[in-house]
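TL;DR need structure tokens for one chain.
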Amino acid sequence: MKRVDQISLRQLRALDAVLTHGTISAAAQAMGLTGPAVHNQLKTLEEIIGSPLIYREGRQRNSATPQGGVLSRANAELRATLERAILNINALNSGHSGCVVIGAVSTAKYLAPRIIALLESEFPGLELVLKIANRSDTIEALSDRALDLCIMGRPPRHALNNAVPLANHPHIIIAAPDHRLSGRDDVSVGELLDERIILREQGSGTRLLATRFIEEIADGQELTTMEMDSNETIKQAVMNGLGIALISAHTVSEEVGSGRLVRLKVPGTPIIRKWYLIAPREFEPTQATKHVRAWLERNFAAHVPELQY
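>> reply
TL;DR here they are.
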């Protein structure tokens, strides 16, 4: 069994140069080497292979033996593979190729697919991976370096992350169209205290905001709440009269626009937060990640729907 790792690129170049130029002296001149140097490279390669690689006599002098032909073709394939590798490396270095993993909290799933589609159009050579989870799981993935970038509503308190605001992120109180408070312009905060308030699960950013809002309006009063594990379930629960909810306006824009849900006009709402782009600070991003990050910082806000209240 011949040892592949004993074969060098220089030896293969010497073989091809002799086959191309017809003599060792011509090959040496083309390679910028001496004749003996080329001869030694060729001789060493033949010893590794265990067979002559060129004919030394007769009309076929300095042409490839069958073994030499096999090795020459393999060298051509190797050269083509290396050239493709160099092109791919150049693309990676320039940011025109590579993989960027973007995390998004579950509330952002109503915006993220459109953003990914725009990024794919802008950077067709990139592989873009979107991972959606609740806030706590997304922060854990960010800490584990499983994400290159992340879109969320409230940045984690972590000194090793960069947080850049991208766009406004309004939150509103929603109810069913036939709710007793629907259609009024003067809904007081006190009237909400008699309602069941539907909350997201623990670990959700929307849950944190809703909990703070409840604490402010309740002033120690016990409220009736119900917990659900997704925005979609909350929307269905509210539509069916199970309660009201404080929720991202971007998650219910379609339902409010079509009249399936209504926004309750409560003082202090909408609560305006921000969408943030989070980038780990503790390791150097790839050029591809830098390009995607710059595009998001420039263009994200333009592709977030403007909602009327």
